[in-house]
Amino acid sequence: MKGLWDRETTALMLLAAYMPLALFWLWYGGSQALVGLGLAVFCLAVWNLVFMLARAQPPSFAAMITAVAFSMLAPEGLGAFRLVLGLSFGAVMGELVFGGWGRNVVNPATVALAFLGFGFHGIDWPVFDAPVVWTAVPAAVIGVATGVMPAAVILGALATGGVALALGAPIDATLPAAGLVLVLLVADPVTSAATTLGRWLNGALFGGFVIMFTTGWNGAAPAQIAVAAALLASLAAPLLDEIAVNLWIVQRRWRHGRN
């Protein structure tokens, strides 16, 4: 789109929506969180420079979005080499090889975190302080108000979680991490579903996976459960859009005839 609302404006607005969440996380995480964020920014800057020189692909502020999401949700105690390895895999295979942010199929932070979770068993996933978790609410409000986060995805996940809680599902311990992952990974305007119905289904599917993994995945940490659910929900987004489009075609044919 020409004018004000181009790709970089969208990335900056999304980064602004993350600011309350990131600032509270840095405040409670201290120097360790700041070092982790700096390492992620440096790693992503190097890979963006490599692809800029190799493919004349311009860098994007979206790298900061990936850095914030990855740093907040990354497992603890892995060391710099493993973290850089996982982030490099996610950035390259999840985003840069597709042409950069806006053309990727899956959020690069989701790919990186899932890679670390599947590659290194028994790692320690982060546990978040209550104030950090609650700042996901203003982040979501800012994102939805500015149009850079799909409201239907968030509402679909909240509806599924609310129904599960009403039915007595034991998901209370997973909800804080799931809320953060919903805002940071699932509500990505690029990799979430594009149709209205698809977005509702996308959010509901994420919530369903969280419930299923919480009740059936023994020994998994809440953050690991939420990341795995985000990965599967993101991979299903194109299929959900296809279902929504086909349902629209069927409805149109039923109203107006086959032609």
Q: How do the helices and strands line up, and which of them pair or pack?
A:
Blueprint: H1 7-55, H2 62-73, H3 80-94, H4 108-119, H5 130-134, H6 136-146, H7 151-166, H8 175-186, H9 196-216, H10 222-256
Helix pairs in contact: 1-2, 1-3, 1-6, 2-4, 3-4, 4-10, 7-8, 7-9, 8-10, 9-10
Short description:
The chain is mainly alpha-helical and 259 residues long.
Write a concise keyword list for the protein shown above:
mainly alpha; single chain; globular
Mean pLDDT across every amino acid position: 92
- Provide the low-confidence segments as ranges: none
Secondary-structure element order, as H and E?
HHHHHHHHHH
The total beta strand count reads 0
Query: How would you characterize the largest beta sheet?
Result: none
Number of helices: 10
What structural category characterises the helix and strand content? mainly alpha
| Outline type | globular
**Helix amount, in percent?**
over 70%
First CA to last CA: what distance? 33 Å
What's the gyration radius in Å?
18 Å
Strand content: under 5%
